[in-house]
Amino acid sequence: MSNLFDLTGKVAVVTGSSKGIGKSIAEQMALHGATVVISSRKEDACQQVAGDINEMVTNGAGEAVAIPCHIGHKEQLQQLVDQTHARVGPIDILVCNAAVNPFYGSMLDIPDSAFEKILDSNIKSNHWLSQMVLPEMVARQDGVIIIIASVGGFNGSPVLGTYCISKAADMQLARNIATEYGAYNIRANAIAPGLIRTDFARALWEDPETLKNSTASACLRRIGEPEEIGGTAVFLASAAGSFITGQTISVDGGR
To answer: Considering the entire predicted model, what is its pTM?
Structure first.
């Protein structure tokens, strides 16, 4: 019987993978056999994570390489794709994880610069990167795109409005890619994490009272861990998830 979660021979590019959810996704994909590209703005952080993964994967099935990239610059995204091709080969799996949220407060008060930065980093960069990898996936008649959204994309927020708008758009981006490219055996899905123990969400879990309030509406009454998102990404990228496309999978403890 074949291993439905085996990613041996696959090349996966994971943006924002030097820490948090992106790092966990890269680790889990490498442990399941994939060659993963670690990418974020800082080269030293990428190199550190790639080195750690290569030490962790001892059976030689998977490996990691570091290719830094600032997702806000289209030319750097193209360099990420080109360097991946040159160093490890065609891209089988694209995980758009990197995102920003530079503003906390009412949408009435958000500066244009912050509004544009959120939409550019959280939506436009994912669109650009998908545009860059889809042609090779079409030619190969195979490919997987995973976009990391958020449960915030399902609801309004008095303090994270623009961020939530961007994550709702990411869900639609996955649906639209699935619709346009399903005939080419390309699958696209989004993952909507709830509260996960990352630096990005530290303000929501570091204080015990805030953590209690934040998890009160979740069935499991606890915070999630990054590897729980990593496992979901492996599922969606592998043969185990081969009949799933155009979906948003909520990983939020039953919230």
So the answer is: 0.96
158 in a structural domain: yes
Max distance between CA atoms of the chain, in angstroms, equals: 57
DSSP run (H or E) holding 60: none
Determine the angle formed by the axes of helices 161-181 and 125-140, rounding to 10 degrees.
20
At 84, list the tokens.
């991946």
Measured between alpha carbons, how far is 210 from 195 in angstroms, rounded to an integer? 12
Q: For residue range 237-248, what is the model confidence (pLDDT) as tens digits? A: 999 999 999 999
Q: Read off the CATH number of the domain in which 91 is found.
A: 3.40.50.720
Q: Which among 190, 189, 174 has a CA at the least distance from the CA of 243? A: 189
104 is catalytic: no
User: Among residues 104, 163, 181, 184, which one is catalytic?
Assistant: 163
Residue 186 counted as domain residue: yes
